[in-house]
Amino acid sequence: MDDLYRDYILDHYKRPRNFGELDPHDMEALEHNPLCGDELGVHIRVKDGRIEDLRFHGHGCAISQASASIASEELKGMALEQVGELDADWAIELLGIPVSATRRKCALLGLKVVKGAVTGDNSWPVGSG
Amino acid sequence: MDDLYRDYILDHYKRPRNFGELDPHDMEALEHNPLCGDELGVHIRVKDGRIEDLRFHGHGCAISQASASIASEELKGMALEQVGELDADWAIELLGIPVSATRRKCALLGLKVVKGAVTGDNSWPVGSG
Amino acid sequence: MKTAESERTTAVSTLDVRDDFPILSRHIDGRPLVYLDSGATSQKPAAVIDAISDYLSEHNANVHRGVYALAQESDAAYESARERIAAFVGWEPRTTIFTKNVTEAINLVAYAWGRTNVGPGDAVLTTQMEHHANIVPWQVLCRERGAELRYLEVDERGELSLDQLDRELARGDVKLVTFTHVSNVLGTILPVAEMTARVRAAGATSLVDGAQAVPHMPVNTAALGADFYAWTGHKALGPTGIGVLHGRTEILEQMEPFLTGGDMIASVDFDGATWNELPFKFEAGTPPIAEAVGLGAAVDYLSALGMERVRAHERKLTGYLLDRLREVPGLRVVGPPEAENRGGLASFTIEGMHAHDIAELANRGGVCIRAGHHCAQPLMRRLGVAATARASVGVYNEPVDVDALIDALLAGRRVFEL
Amino acid sequence: MKTAESERTTAVSTLDVRDDFPILSRHIDGRPLVYLDSGATSQKPAAVIDAISDYLSEHNANVHRGVYALAQESDAAYESARERIAAFVGWEPRTTIFTKNVTEAINLVAYAWGRTNVGPGDAVLTTQMEHHANIVPWQVLCRERGAELRYLEVDERGELSLDQLDRELARGDVKLVTFTHVSNVLGTILPVAEMTARVRAAGATSLVDGAQAVPHMPVNTAALGADFYAWTGHKALGPTGIGVLHGRTEILEQMEPFLTGGDMIASVDFDGATWNELPFKFEAGTPPIAEAVGLGAAVDYLSALGMERVRAHERKLTGYLLDRLREVPGLRVVGPPEAENRGGLASFTIEGMHAHDIAELANRGGVCIRAGHHCAQPLMRRLGVAATARASVGVYNEPVDVDALIDALLAGRRVFEL
Ligand SMILES: Cc1ncc(COP(=O)(O)O)c(C=O)c1O
Ligand SMILES: Cc1ncc(COP(=O)(O)O)c(C=O)c1O
If residue B42 lies in a helix (H) or strand (E), which one and from where to where? Predict the structure, then answer.
């Protein structure tokens, strides 16, 4: 079996969870991967200081799409405060595959856009190298 | 004996002919050697379309000073038209020593300034490489 | 026993120069390296690597100022490189300026020519197929100077319309027309001489980005008729750190300098400075000496191969590449359909696979291809794609490299269960 | 049997690294090469030359965009070089920008910072001892922006007056103070930390030209406190084609880019572009990859020697040089009298011999020294000399090199019948 393109990665890529628009929403952001121009946006609905629901939209490679899709399941219900503290390791571990230095940005794009929407800070998540 | 610093070169360097000011004069020019910032100027007095008299002033290395000094003796009495046609070979031959590529500009500075004064064209003499 | 495939590949010529390129003997995960990314940067023959080492180990000194032997050798090496590099593309050394890459060469024109020649109400005309290096400097210039930046459109075949060029020029406000010689995404070879003739007739100035042309085909800049022609060393078998700008004497002489400092002055005093003669006026500071020596060796190498042969080889190889890519289900090539009209590259998409994943999976087969927007995001938008994968060839590629790519793409589709 | 001279020379330490530098085994007209022109450019150890060759033969690819193995190796090599180069002078990689030389680094600040921060009525303060690279860009900027360029004066000892700096800052119009760390003509080491503290207290910005400092002494840019610190690779045992600019994050983030094109953008569309993060925002186009690898190897080499040891060695050698130059009749050294206060160089004149002739005659003895204005014409004017000869040392020099210079100078005087 392929190291990177595991079954669950391809599954999340082909059938991404929580993708689409979410209207109305309370927070949103849109980011590019400067490497390839891939675009990923997010809509977030907030309730009691937590992410009640969220949807990603945009396009990207298997790594960035799967990473956003997998993260979306974890992010639902998470306290906004906690979102602000998520770092690169969190996203990489969640993804569960070895990611090369070049493709780290693909794997982190989803987290970047969510943190951008929630905290307004759209720098790359700490530890992106 | 030294190849470059022959007796007559050193003699012209130490006792340059036709150096100083010439007032009044009909033509003048001032040039720099961009390599070292050396400065050479000339005053020319004209009669009947010929250089009646000329004086160089400024400072420079043995090559540029000797070259100007030696040339000054040839230039006296020369028709202005002829001055306009002098090229790099003329000055190098007159100098009579092997001049490296780097020091060609030293050897040609005298001719450059004289041609500049006479023709208004202060580009490097043809063949300066 | 010959398979159908090997019969077909032997029908395509090779220049047989692989052994000149040390890197090509590398293996990636046990598979021989297949380099199909010359569009991004070329590999270097031993002749270039050795020329650099030799210069640094035997002759190294700063240029233009020293009277000792090493300095004279360095001067000679640097200026001889300039002469050979200029001659390689049919231009004069005195108006051949070394920059750090083609990006700096274009910026040089934007700053030093553009800021005095483009003003409010004027227009700069570029094309939708440009590399960012030939778009962003003009966006910046036009914003600063209150001018307008307009784009020639790319049609379905990946080509421009000369009629649109005529119409744009007829508007009378165009000061500069700047365009690529060969598109780094579409492969399109533009009709440079026809375009510069029209630009000149309209009284405008032309700049051609030759980054993807000079390494791959005979280029005679004098015949092409551009006012400025720029290219980059590292794509032409030379090292990084050097670009080339050819310009017309009259224009370069009227321009103010760009970068200022040592070597580009005639004299400096506390109140101001005067400028050195061409080309030095545009080469501030210690120039890329070892890099010029390396690029000099690169053009010598290419000249010895013969650029007509290089072009013939790459055209055939590109034809073979286009043919074989058609075998991959779901694959779509962008740009001109025939190899005749394109440089040695093909950009493509595969239904159901993102370009990044295509490149990642190609690497599993030891095959190096590029994926992304290729620094041409506006073109990507025009084409309606997010990214493409691109295979691009060089003198050292052979049909087996194309075969390896196709095998890797087919294997990649299987990984993606397509 | 020891002569007085050889006894004296053995008293001076050597780092004993000659054999690391291939060029030093060369002979000029049968005489061993004596290289005393490190102020113009340094020689390169085999470790640097090999690192470049190895990169080009084994790992070459373009950076920042490729997903294949070679591209990843190149990315890692380039960014690791940036980390080591930044660490070598105590700065952060993210705010360490590669340019083509220090001249471009200074121009970058003049264009990208200067054009927005210096306006009519403002002043830029530089010094009379600057290299043209740190004068002409400010002349151009001040002319364009209607600002005034003023100069801190050089006194008889070749030093500046901190009082004058205070007086200038008190005028309240100074936006930028820019000065060299070590003068390339006088050798003077400026009190950088004291100066930047005063500049900061006055609310102005500081730029330090470290071209002659970084290769020769421990430099901790963070402790020196400048807002910008620039230096150049080829003088620091590295190759041509690379310079370095360190800048403060807040300032770099507020600046517009300088050169624009590929790699420095976040996204581009037909109407405009947004910029990439630091340091990439200031690195347009293919960067000097092989050059960064080479400079990385150079700082590794210097770090292994230890910059404290390098400085101690060069200080002793410069003391010896100053002592022995006094033996030459008619010779006058410019700049600070003691080696303690100067970098590893001595500029001098000889009564009755022009500097060019001095250098030419030194070359007869196989000795490479520089002659001319050293790209510091304003300083030459201040010193009242047309040109000087300059001997400058590097890690590879030894007392015998100084002895060879003295012999050549004495022989030269005989040629000139002095
Ligand atoms: C003090 C100083 N600044 C600037 C420079 C210019 O360096 P580069 O030519 O590498 O830009 C030099 C060397 O020539 C120098 O000595
Ligand atoms: C058409 C074209 N123009 C410009 C460039 C930029 O070249 P460089 O990065 O060497 O400045 C490239 C390559 O990246 C290119 O393909």
Answer: strand B39-47
Integer Cα distance of C88 and C85 in angstroms: 5
How buried is C400 (Cβ within 10 angstroms: 0-12 exposed, 13-18 middle, 19+ buried)? middle
Q: What is the pLDDT of residue D1?
A: 42
pLDDT band at D85 (very low <50, low <70, confident <90, very high): very high
- Coil, strand or helix at A32: strand
pLDDT digits (tens, 9 = 90+) for C330-363: 999 999 988 888 999 999 999 999 999 999 999 9
What are the CA-CA distances from residue B25 to residues B21, B54, B103 (Å)?
A: 9, 8, 30
Smallest Cα–Cα separation from C348: which of C329, C367, C375?
C329
The answer to whether the Cβ–Cβ distance between D56 and C40 falls below 8 Å is no
Q: Is residue D201 located within the same domain as residue D140?
A: yes
Pair D101, D193 in one domain: yes
**Domain housing C364:** 4-32+306-415
In chain D, what residues touch B106 (CB-CB under 8 Å)? 356
Rounded CA separation D225/D185 (Å) = 24
Q: Pairing state of beta strands D96-99 and D243-247?
A: antiparallel
Give the minimum alpha-carbon distance from A5 to chain C in angstroms, rounded to a whole number.
7
**D244: helix, strand or coil:** strand
Is residue D142 annotated as a catalytic residue, yes or no?
A: no
Domain annotation covers residue D124: yes
pLDDT for position D2: 43
Tell me which residue of D286, D289, D300, D245 sits closest to D44, measured CA to CA: D300
What are D385's two structure tokens? Answer: 């000399």
Is C408 within 8 Å of C203 (Cβ atoms)? no
ipTM value of the model? 0.94
Cβ contact C354–A10 (<8 Å): no
Q: In the listed set C303, C334, C350, which residue is the last one of a domain according to the structure? A: C303
| Chain B CB within 8 Å of residue D372 CB | yes
Q: Which of C303, C329, C359 is the last residue of a domain?
A: C303
Is position C132 within any domain?
Answer: yes
Contact between chains at A100 and D67 (C-beta distance less than 8 A)? yes
Query: Which of these is catalytic: C12, C375, C385, C410?
Result: C375
**In which order are the strands placed within the sheet that holds C331-334?**
C331-334, C345-350, C388-392, C370-372
Q: What is the CATH number of the domain that holds D400?
A: 3.90.1150.10
Asked whether residue D297 falls in the same domain as residue D311, the answer is no
Instruction: Give the pLDDT confidence of D353-398 residue by residue, as tens digits.
Output: 999 999 999 999 999 999 999 999 999 999 999 899 999 999 999 9
Phi-psi category of residue C382: left, alpha or beta, with phi > 0 → left and psi -120 to 50 → alpha: alpha
**Partner residue facing A36 (CB), from C361, C373, C415:** C373
Do C160 and C137 have their domain in common?
Answer: yes
Element (H, E) at D388: strand D388-392
User: Does a structural domain hold residue A127?
Assistant: no
Task: Please state the domain count of chain A.
Answer: 1
Q: Say if B2 falls within a structural domain.
A: no
DSSP annotation of D227: S
Do C28 and C69 belong to one domain?
no
Q: Write b or e for each residue in D354-370: b if 16 or more Cβ atoms lie within 10 A of its Cβ, otherwise e.
A: bbbbbbbbbbbbbbbbb
Any domain includes A60: yes
d(CA C127, CA C150): 8
C180-230 residue pLDDT tens: 999 999 999 999 999 999 999 999 999 999 999 999 999 999 999 999 999
Buried b (16+ CB within 10 A) or exposed e, C203-215: ebbbbbbbbbbbb
Q: Which residues in C lie closer than 8 A to residue B123 (C-beta atoms)?
A: 277
Name which of D26, D143, D287 is nearest C58 (Cβ-Cβ).
Answer: D26
Q: What local confidence, expressed as pLDDT, does residue C1 receive?
A: 42
Listed in order, strand segments (DSSP E) in C145-249 are 148-152, 174-180, 205-209, 228-232, 243-247
